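Hi there. Long-time user, first ticket. I'm pasting a complex I've been working with (about 716 residues overall). I'd like to know whether the download I got is complete or cut off, because the file seemed smaller than I expected. Thanks.
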Amino acid sequence: MLERFKVPEKDRVYVPVEKARAATEAVFRHAGLDESGARQCADVLITNDLRGVESHGISNQLRNYLRLYGEGKLNPRPNVRVERETDTTTLVNSDGALGIHVAPNAMRMAIAKAKKHGTGTVAVTGAGHLGGAGYHASLAAKENMIGQAMAGPGGSQTLPTFGAEPRFGTHPIAWAAPARSQPPFLFDIATTQVAGNKIQLARRVGADLEPAWIADKDGQPILDRVPVPDEYYQLPFGGTRENSSHKGYGMMAMIDIMCNAMTGVGAGFLTGGGGQVFVATDIQAFIDLDDYFDWMDRFLEGLRNTKPAAGHERVLYPGLSEWEETQARTRDGIPYHREVVEWFESYAAEVGVEIDLR
Amino acid sequence: MLERFKVPEKDRVYVPVEKARAATEAVFRHAGLDESGARQCADVLITNDLRGVESHGISNQLRNYLRLYGEGKLNPRPNVRVERETDTTTLVNSDGALGIHVAPNAMRMAIAKAKKHGTGTVAVTGAGHLGGAGYHASLAAKENMIGQAMAGPGGSQTLPTFGAEPRFGTHPIAWAAPARSQPPFLFDIATTQVAGNKIQLARRVGADLEPAWIADKDGQPILDRVPVPDEYYQLPFGGTRENSSHKGYGMMAMIDIMCNAMTGVGAGFLTGGGGQVFVATDIQAFIDLDDYFDWMDRFLEGLRNTKPAAGHERVLYPGLSEWEETQARTRDGIPYHREVVEWFESYAAEVGVEIDLR
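Hi, the file is complete. Here it is re-exported in full:
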């Protein structure tokens, strides 16, 4: 994550990971989820927080989720149904569950199919927020598979290249691949220039946005460095056509097709979308694991050891700095903004759930 | 394609598509391919030329291919072998064939598996140039499937974000999806800012490169508009970190893992890479085709009908302008640069193959 998005030192409250986890499980249980559902939801948020992906952890997401449960817009006890199934594919209706509640199980279904047949693809409809695609993709990597996860949320945020009307959300996608002795590869992105939640985060920490990160309401990319304006649209990654925004746009469109057209949900910008797709590909279907790991470790080492350009300390690969952050935060606690901790404590007190974050 | 990459009007020779096809088949046969192999190879190049993807048609590729056959570096009569197979996956050794020769059959194998089991994934090793990923992905779309194709060529061209040493080629990827009454969706990209062949094309037509399209030999992105320099590295799409080059880089890395680590070829930058992966996902495994097509047509129509931003005529979707170009070129002929036609004619005369391009 860019430095400016980090919580400023003076505003940090370091919360031990197990305290954060227990508190999060407690409020999910209070929202009506069963024990294992609450544990699953908390694990997604805490894993994201450990990785430093604040935008998809407790800070930005938990209060939204709790509000939606409170308003009856999420189903804490879903009756998840299989609507169509083949050897390698399943279409699952999530019955209004939160994405982070049902998506991990969808990926586990894909993994089970891949163990038997080589690959598995599970599509989920009717679920709430995915909580980032990376967590789910990683589940496959832990089983020595290539994991892929994506979601096609609504269509009111992001412009297609050359367009002045929004057609997409942030349309996240992630791929994960295991390694033996190197930290695992996890490529986890929004197909916008910047994750929607990072814009909220920039507003909270008072950071400027970069040129071509957003467009004005008439569809013109804003090419200056500006604070977050009141009204704006997001742009596909690349930002402008000259900088390959058509690649971000095309990727969003593809994600929308797989998540929403292929699942019967309909186009995100017409129906609100929300379909999610999880793919597991068994590495051993192609090659012995030992051979794969030999190459994978050499590949990742080679990327890390690339000579850096002047002005840069080192070359990273996707997942590396998040893995390092996980080690540090497991040791030192998660540095939440004090506003977040205060909200969490006051929410818990208000609804009568006992938590201990300090 | 950006206007500046088109062949200038004064240099165009319009060649009727069937003449171009017959001549191309003839030189492939002369290079040693059998009838059906020559037909397949010509179909890839001509389809790319019809779509206006000059960078992957006769102009840039045919003379390279013929030279490599001439030098014995491509095998015109490969003994393609299945090395590992499951219900849904196949690892194929292409025995040194040209990519455009064997890749379409690899995708057809994936399609056959998807018809039976829902999805199919076929990985190919030891093949030459893929000739663009789009053609192969489209084969699945023609069978009412989602098609995906990718390749992990060498590692001497493109820098990882913050790096000063190359680690990747152009690492192309494509997804194709069928539609009923709208032109089909085909998202077909290099994961660099610009396809390597487009840089050659820019040099040929004297066009400048855009800011952040390439880097100097020390890894610094060149932020001015410049003619193609003698020495340069390519950058992942996005160009700079602020413009999401880490997304292009991550995508390249993922493609390299699937094409090269997962297939035993090894990392592209260590071994020369060259693995290729083809995935077919049967839409009917998830939803009835009629329902899919209803949504898909509305989705694509909605994209086309997006209000354009000021200064832009319309909003395209991936595959639309290439489809329109195909209609025009089928009618009017393919506008090759006269230098290309002259080369083709002199090559054919030299090797004693009769062709007729005028």
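A couple of notes from our side: Chain A has one domain: 78-331. Chain A touches chain B through 86 residues (CB under 8 Å).
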